[in-house]
Design a protein that fits this description.
By secondary structure, the protein is α+β, with helices and mostly antiparallel strands. 27% of the residues lie in helices and 28% in strands. The longest helix is centred in the last third of the chain and has 20 residues, at 195-214.
Length: 277
């Protein structure tokens, strides 16, 4: 039976998730420094059956992009998925997900979450803030981090996708800056959410979108373009030693943010968003 308590995913949920998704290995921890750290650790094991799911009730040092940290309390859904882009793509057992597609994995994961939220909570507004945030009602509900640890033969190259999702962790007690920028599903819906079902639905939708990504399905970039909350806004980005200012024209098929300035349209593949108005 699925629990709706603040314990989040419990042991009895794991068998259901493994049975009804493409995941082949599951593990749950009461506390981890970071599920991605654990994912990187087990990715080096050549005997690991992938895709592998790691769920933690609590993270003590969850990471975001760069120096960012993920703030969470009991009730948050924090997990990582370890998968092999060579052979774990549903419907493509022998066709790899080309490395040129890897920069689009976080966007695809964000689209999958938006699709699940749309189906489960149709009244809630949702969107993507490039490169790796999912918003509900204009506030951050989830962050996504994809890491590519070095291959350690005989293990093949594996990717680690981590997500922190505010589910049943009310942000009422969060620091003021977190309350201003973030939201949890329990606060948005005024009711507890079935975290296990949410995770299972996301896994199955993400599996669909990995296949779409491998197939170069044009509907996928059209979907992330439609969800981009920065489109039409004046933005400021920092990348390396550069500051880029201009008007956002959305996200292209390769996952790049399109920024129009006096010099024309520039494609940005990696940057930190400083400001959006």
């Amino acid at each position: 039976m699925t629990t709706l308590s603040r314990e989040g995913i419990v042991e009895t949920d794991l068998a259901r998730i493994q049975k009804h998704s493409f995941v082949r290995h599951v593990e749950r921890h009461d506390s981890l420094s970071s599920t991605n750290d654990r994912g990187i650790e087990i990715a080096a094991d050549a005997e690991l059956c992938t895709p592998a799911l790691i769920v933690a009730r609590q993270q003590t040092a969850g990471r975001g992009r760069g120096a960012n940290r993920w703030w969470s309390q009991d009730g948050a859904l924090t997990f990582s998925l370890v998968f092999d882009p060579q052979c774990d793509i549903p419907g493509h057992p022998s066709a790899p997900l080309a490395s040129s597609h890897w920069p689009c994995i976080a966007l695809s994961a964000g689209v999958a979450l938006c699709d699940v939220l749309e189906q489960t909570f149709p009244a809630l507004g949702r969107g993507l803030k490039w490169p790796n945030d999912v918003l509900v009602e204009g506030k951050k509900v989830a962050g996504i981090l994809v890491e590519v640890p070095p291959a350690k033969p005989p293990a093949s190259r594996r990717l680690v996708l981590g997500m922190g999702l505010n589910v049943n962790n009310s942000l009422v007690a969060a620091p003021p800056e977190i309350q201003a920028a973030g939201i949890s599903l329990i606060d948005a819906t005024s009711a507890p959410v079935d975290a296990a079902q949410l995770l299972l639905s996301w896994l199955n939708r993400f599996a669909d979108l990995l296949r779409a990504l491998a197939d170069d399905d044009p509907k996928l970039p059209t979907r992330w373009q439609s969800l981009c909350v920065l489109t039409g806004r004046s933005i400021e980005l920092e990348t390396g030693q550069r500051t880029i200012r201009g008007l956002c024209r959305g996200i292209d098929h390769s996952g790049a943010l399109l920024v129009e300035s006096v010099t024309g349209i520039e494609r940005i593949y990696a940057a930190s968003l400083v400001r959006a108005v």
